[in-house]
Amino acid sequence: MERQDVIILGGGLVGLTLGIALARHGIRAAVIDPADPDKVLASGFDGRASAVASAPWRMLDAIGVGAHLQGRGCPIDAIRVQDGLSPESLIFEPSADDGALGHMFENRDLRIALDTTARAADGLTLLRPARPVDVHRDLDGVRVTLADGREVEGSLLIGAEGRQSPTREAAGITCARWSYDHVAMIASIAHEKPHGNVAYEIFYTTGPFAILPLVDDAEGRHRSALVWTVDKKHAPAMLGLPDRAYQAEAEKRMGGMLGKVSLISPRSSYPLGFHHAARITDTRLALVGDAAHGIHPIAGQGVNLGYRDVAALTEVLVEGMRLGLDPGDAQLLARYQRWRSLDSFMVAASTDGLTRLFGIPGRTARTVRRIGLGAVQRLGPLKGRFMAEARGETGKLPRLLQGMAI
Amino acid sequence: MNASAQQHGSVVAEEAAHFGKLAAEWWDPKGSSAMLHKLNPPRLRHIRATIEAQWGIAPEELRPLTGRRAADVGCGAGLLAEPLARMGAAVTGIDAAPENVAVARHHAEKQGLAIDYRAGGVEALAGESFDLVTSMEVIEHVADPAAFVARLAALLAPNGIMILSTPNRTPLSKLAMITVAEGLGMVPKGTHDWRKFVTPEELTGHVEAAGLRVIDRKGLGFSPAAGFHLSDNLTLDYFLTAIR
What we know:
Distance between the termini of chain A: 28 Å
Shape of chain A: globular
Order of helices and strands of chain B: HHEHEHEEHEHHEEE
Oligomer: heterodimer
Number of domains of chain B: 1
Shape of chain B: globular
Structural class of chain A: alpha+beta
Radius of gyration of chain B: 17 Å
Number of strands of chain B: 8
Largest sheet of chain B: 8 strands, mixed
């Protein structure tokens, strides 16, 4: 096999996007993933969905993925944040010419679009399913040995295997982490009334409850994705609820605002935690996406942080290689580290703060939250900052996030 | 002292021996050549901007030197030769210290780069012709700068470009490169002899005497915050670009 410029371990939403972005700029990349893509894509809708903020969406468009997602994304025209079912709420609504705050996609549609784009990309080698059994990095290069005995050599290794990244562990990179003692229950629902392209973040003291708008299905049913956070100790009971009881509980938490609710996907769950890698580079190694930082899903920022990693790393590598530098050059990795560290920590810290603020029970706390929400609503600049965050537009913006090739 | 380094007219034997001893650490970005690694991006940015402007190369071209010959004189272990090869050039790298050349050859081979490395001085290239001739941070180490520049100039093909860089001879360069850099061990002790530094005016004189025309002089600055960067201030270190 030809020597690769970049070897990406992990072909999920972030790893595959990076491979496509690099290949688009003439950089040879290989994506290695143990899962069989045909099996992954053949499975039905699993209920999982992601909010792709407008800046990452511009990148997906610029690298050719957007063309395969036409009509699949539901624009988020407004985000409504409220404390329980109180009538007071904070509404983030961009002005008419500003465009949507982001788009909601079924993860399955994102995977299909990425897979279609990746298979057609020149210079992108897809090794799936393929399991790496040995990874060797030194000053000279990277060598990955696969379970079937094949060897892939390259200049730079990318850890994109998600929050449990074995590459991060092997590099001895420590993570700051804590658990929220909460579990997110994920499912998609059909509902009687249209959502009007509004995303709801309803904060209960038991944990936030998010309703994220999806496009109507083929039968014209209105749909949304639910991210329902419950205390870890209540999780087994909640997860054990029969579908009918689950629907009734969900309706109650939604205050009937979308009418009758019915489940249209399996329910899944995962424990919520926060982790932030102390550094995101090592000798000929860079981490992207959840391998580098995992945050609370409440603001739908997880995949967007990953896409911002992709945009920044692609820019650093493309500019470096145009200067003839080795893609594993320590100066380039240092630039990536500097560019991403502060931004990802700010997003992680602010979503964490938001969740903690709303997780405090009691009347006083609720009053503080209400005043807080009202104040943010009245204070233009602060709201602007929240909106920019939701769009993924804070920090020095990589060119791909502006929809431009590098 | 190294016997094989003594036979080339332009080379000062002690200088070649000094760099030869450092050879093993050349490619470690955290080793004794760390400063050179940090210097590489702005240096390459300058080369890239120059060839784009002179030869009408598109900014997104990944291999802008395809089909061109390049010579890097005083190539060390290939920190500049390898990027030039990756940009597509057929590169000849020459260095007075055989240890450097051995490290360079070994490294390029592992990177899958075909680079023609030779041990020797600029004299060894006489009669050959190159589209791009570079000699970075070298002239301050040679025996006779004027003769060295004349030999470099003779290598230039029609429409060729010569890019040199060297520290200026100013109080600032003495403070930064000797007192601070060598004093703190950021650069190995004995790397530079300030009295041999060449001013832009002197270098321009040598280049013009060799029949070339200087088209650009650009400063290389350093700050703790921004690291090495291109600037219009020539007082620390500078690039000089010339064509026939």
